[in-house]
Amino acid sequence: MPSLSIKSEEPTLPLSESDSPAKEVKPPSLWKRTIDKIPGITYLRKFNDWEKNKWPGIKIPTFLILVIIVLVLWWIPPSGLGIHTWQVFVTFLVTIIGFCTVTNILTTDQILSGFGNDTVWLIVFACFIASGFVTTGLGKRLCFIILKYIGSTTLGLAYAFCICEFILAMAIPSSTARGAGILLPIIEPLLKEGFQSDPALGTERRIGSYMIMVEIVANTTSSVCWLTGGAWNAMMANFMTDVGVHLSWGQWAYSMAPPGILPLIYGPIVLYFLYPPEIKKTPEAKQLANDKLAEMGRIGVFEAVMALVFLMVIILWIVSSSIAFVPYSTTGVAILGLSVLLMTGILDVKKDIVANKGAWDLFLWFGVLLMLATELKETGFFEWFATLIDLSSVPAYLSVWICTAIFYISQYLFASITAHVSAMFPVFLQIMQRAGVPMQLGARALAYTTLSGHLTQYTSSTNPPYFNLKYVPMGRWWLQGLVVMIINLIVLNTICWGYWWLLGFW
């Protein structure tokens, strides 16, 4: 019987300094010698080292650059725009970049107005409720149950993660919490341990590369389906009221979820041909799901209560949107659900509310961005900007094509969907309104294109943790993002339009 032979080699010992070959020491370049002669350069280098390694506060160079931007732009408004409106825009601009400066341009009431908005609190309370899926383990149990029943093939496994995202997005308004917080801890060990698909072993193409891209598409697409699927959805709903479009939770669901399901159906198939996995059958996924469910045991009391509260909140969101005598608003329903979770001990005030950094970070940034965007609207900035892109001579429905394509593509310029929406969504609403677009159609079509977070490794906060797993090279990610974008835009301007026509929106 042939046996494997292993080639043995003499261990290589490190050379001593005397034995090692002499290294040629290159003299400093002319550029470096010139820089070293600049007076004070030594102190600048010491300051740079102190700022990077010891200073715990903001990045001082970045701060100074933003201050310079403000000083340069502050007093040079373009023609046709008032100085006050321009200064609000400059403040908004540097806030989007990452800095909110203290100015006297806004009154205290205006500064705090965003924090009293119902949509802000809806997202915050939904974040608190979402933490119940993690603390009780219900989120993982739901995922393993779905894997158990439809995860025996590669396509079935892909659809399992799509279904998980679709369900969790109903009540978890953070795509990062869903994708990186709940599903990533399931996906990574499944790929590496279950399928031995590991970039470190050179086997990422077995199934891992395909599955990572499916999850990214599912994560951003499921956010479109529900008002609470992403924090930016509530912001868009708030902006839509300015053009006469009012969407409750239920109205958003029946007009956006069916079109949103389409990419969840064809996305895994498209990616299957773009980046075909080597494995076609996945019995390991079903076995892993069975093992994990056995390990978790029968559903506990807290999980059962969490499931009931989840169903109660969803039903009340739907009912409150369609029946006038229901005494709760969408935000009121979220408060009710949170109260039940606190009273039953599923959530702890200190651990899950006070210490919920993600929810409070979202509250602060969301409130500031909404306040500044509202002030820009009140001062007429968006209307002025819309006049710079005049589509009034273009047929209304062609204007929708143009606006949705530009808005989708412009996501390449942003590392956050929320920042993208707050900066550009109101402007494109105004452009379409001036072009005579039926806004019931235009607003929904524009909102639909926020599934653009899949485009690159940086266009959504969910993407970097998956990109860092090294399953998908950057070039491949960009290529697949481009192909999926083209298909999504074609579907939007054909099938989705047809569905909205049946609903009477145009």
Automatic annotation (TrEMBL):
Residues 1-27 are annotated as: Disordered. InterPro entries: CitT-rel (IPR030676), SLC13A/DASS (IPR001898). One of its GO terms (molecular function) is transmembrane transporter activity. The keyword Iron does not apply. It is a multi-pass membrane protein. It comes from the Eukaryota. GO terms for cellular component: chloroplast inner membrane. It is found in: Plastid, Chloroplast inner membrane. Its main location: plastid. Keywords: Membrane, Plastid, Plastid inner membrane, Transmembrane, Transmembrane helix. The chain crosses the membrane at residues 55-76, 88-107, 119-139, 145-168, 210-232, 252-275, 296-319, 325-347, 359-376, 396-429, 477-500. It holds the Pfam family Na_sulph_symp. PANTHER family: DICARBOXYLATE TRANSPORTER 2.1, CHLOROPLASTIC. Belongs to the SLC13A/DASS transporter (TC 2.A.47) family. DIT1 subfamily. This is Uncharacterized protein. It comes from Perkinsus olseni (Perkinsus atlanticus).
